[in-house]
Structures are given as C-alpha cells and as structure tokens.
Design goal:
six-stranded parallel β-sheet, Rossmann fold, alpha/beta, about 280 residues, single chain, 2 domains, 10 helices, three-stranded parallel β-sheet, binds NADP nicotinamide-adenine-dinucleotide phosphate
Length: about 280
C-alpha cells in the first residue's frame, strides 16, 4: 500500500480563500478583521514565524499590527500593551509570540489576553471551553489536524486514535478534539513503556513529539491515518517530522508530509480563529 498524501498546502489555500471571502464580507459591514502580533526580543525563529503570520494576514485581507519590542521590555510593560489591545476595537485577535524572555512569565501574559481575542487558544478559558465542549478558540495546530481529517471525509466515531505527546498546545488539545468527535483516544508520552504496542492498535496516529523517527513503519497498522506534527532538522539540516515518512507511507492509508503538511495549516487556523473573533465581535 502507498498512502495518500494529505496536502496541507492545498487545503490551506482553499481555507484561506474562504477566510478572504469572510474578511471581505466583514469589511463590507465596516469591520476590518485585525490581528495584533507581539514579538519580544530577537529570537531568529520567532522572527520568521511572525513574518509568516503577518504575510498570511496581508494575503487574506486581514489587518495585522506587528509590535516588535526589545528583549528588555518588562513584564508590566507587556501586560500594559495587552490591556490596551484588549480594549482596542480594531483588534480582534492578539497573539504573543513564544518563547518570551526568561524574565517574563509567559502564562501570566497569556492569561492577560481577553478570552474573546485569544486566537492562539492558549488561555485557560479556551482550554476549559474545549474540555467541556463549549464554544471557544481551539489551538491552531491541533485544529489544523482536525481540518485535515475532515478534508478526507474521515469519520472518527468508534475509531481508535493515538496521540503521541501531551503538551498543552498540541497533544492534550488534540486528544480532546478527537474525543469530541467520538474517537477512543489514547495519549502516549515519554513515560509510555511500549509505544509500538499502542500505535499498532491505532486507526489514527498523531505524532507531536519533536524527535525524528518516533514513528516507523513497523509501528503502524496497515491503512491507518498518520498525522505528523513534528518539526525537526535531520542530519543534513533539512526540515523533517517525527514520522519516518518513506517507510510509513508504504503501510499507512493516509499521511501528512513535512514540510507541506501540518505547518501551513497552523497559520491558516490562526486566520480562521481571527475571522471568527471578528465575526463574534458583531454579535
Ligand atoms: P513538547 O512540549 O516538547 O512536547 C513533546 C511531547 O512529546 C511531550 O509530551 C513528551 O512527553 C513527548 N515525548 C518525548 N519523547 C517521547 C518519546 N520518546 N515517546 C513518546 N512521547 C515522547 O512539544 P510540542 O510543543 O507539543 O511540539 C511537538 C512537536 O511539534 C515539535 O517538533 C514542534 O516543533 C512541533 N510543532 C509543530 C507545529 C506546526 O505548526 N507544525 C506547531 C507546534 C509544534 P512528556 O510530556 O512525558 O515529556
């Protein structure tokens, strides 16, 4: 078997066209959807992420406000900026690029963002809403994975999904989203004694670890759907995921590539959440 690719670039393009249409409809009502992106310090990877997010906004008709602050910015100053943006009617989503410098408490900063503008979905109110199945903002990466499953018409009811990784931004919310769609969910982590025994039972595997070759062909049930969230560099410095792509694609039914899989979907879901926030501000 050779797995079918779930193309995150093509799906993103389609979803971003819908975002652009929704943004145009809002502008026609006098509302320009707006996202504020706050960058503190000079982290090179963060600078690239922030640039990509701002470009994605521009391409989709979403107004973006990029605030660059020096690494010396105090926590109090950052909290004051967030307070101002919470009260700015032209801004519907607020994103603070992580990581923050060590002298700033990232959790405190996230909790300062109004839940109505928490388009990253990292606020405890957003996490709680997901937990109890109430409307709220879903974290962009697992939300993008769900859209990928939806794009292949995959019905999760009664399926066994195995999530490898339990971070607050990917693994845990991913598991809750799969559960909400009636999958039976197993969460694996670094203390799971026999990962292969778990993944071999899975109809869907989501790998969100940050280590190359965490999932190899011998660990995958034939026909399973494999979603690779990992972003790693291989020995040649090339971007790769957590999944041994060449091996696993011979066994799986569907697979997401890296690059070109979950990565573009994450930014796309940020746009979707921003649009949602702007639309909700009308009601
Ligand atoms: P994280 O916070 O470091 O969490 C990694 C998780 O993997 C932890 O729960 C850890 O378990 C688990 N783990 C580590 N080694 C393991 C092993 N050998 N077997 C099973 N589980 C193991 O990372 P994250 O923020 O969730 O990100 C995960 C990966 O996704 C990274 O490569 C990151 O770059 C990537 N990512 C990609 C996107 C995207 O847009 N494509 C977005 C976000 C993240 P413990 O909890 O026990 O330590």
């Amino acid at each position: 078997m050779t797995a079918q690719l779930i193309d995150g670039i093509a799906l993103s393009k389609q979803l971003r066209t819908e975002v652009a249409q929704r943004a145009a409809a809002l502008r026609a009502q006098g509302i320009a959807p707006g996202l504020a992106v706050l960058l503190v310090g000079e982290n090179p990877a963060s600078q690239v992420y922030v640039r990509n997010k701002v470009k994605a906004c521009e391409d989709s008709g979403v107004h973006s406000l990029l605030e660059r602050h020096p690494a010396t910015l105090t926590e109090a100053e950052l909290l004051a900026r967030i307070d101002a943006l919470n009260n700015d009617p032209t801004i519907h989503g607020i994103l603070v690029q992580l990581p923050l410098p060590a002298h700033i408490d990232a959790q405190k900063v996230i909790e300062a963002i109004s839940p109505a503008k928490d388009v990253d979905g990292f606020h405890v109110a957003s996490a709680g809403a997901l937990m109890v199945g109430q409307p709220g903002f879903w974290p962009c990466t697992p939300y993008g994975c769900m859209k990928m499953l939806e794009s292949i018409g995959y019905d999760l009811r009664g399926k066994h999904a195995v999530v490898i990784g339990r971070s607050n931004i990917v693994g845990k919310p991913m598991a809750l989203m799969l559960l909400q769609k009636n999958a039976t969910v197993t969460i694996c982590h670094s203390a799971t004694p026999d990962l292969k025994a778990m993944t071999l039972l899975a109809d869907v595997v989501v790998a969100a670890v940050g280590k190359q070759n965490v999932l190899t062909a011998d660990m995958v049930k034939p026909g399973a759907v494999v979603i690779d969230v990992g972003m790693n560099r291989n020995e040649d410095g090339k971007l790769c995921g957590d999944v041994d792509f060449e091996g696993v694609r011979q066994v799986a039914g569907y697979i997401t590539p890296v690059p070109g899989g979950v990565g573009p979907m994450t930014i796309t879901m940020l746009l979707v959440n921003t649009l949602e926030a702007a639309e909700r501000s009308l009601t």
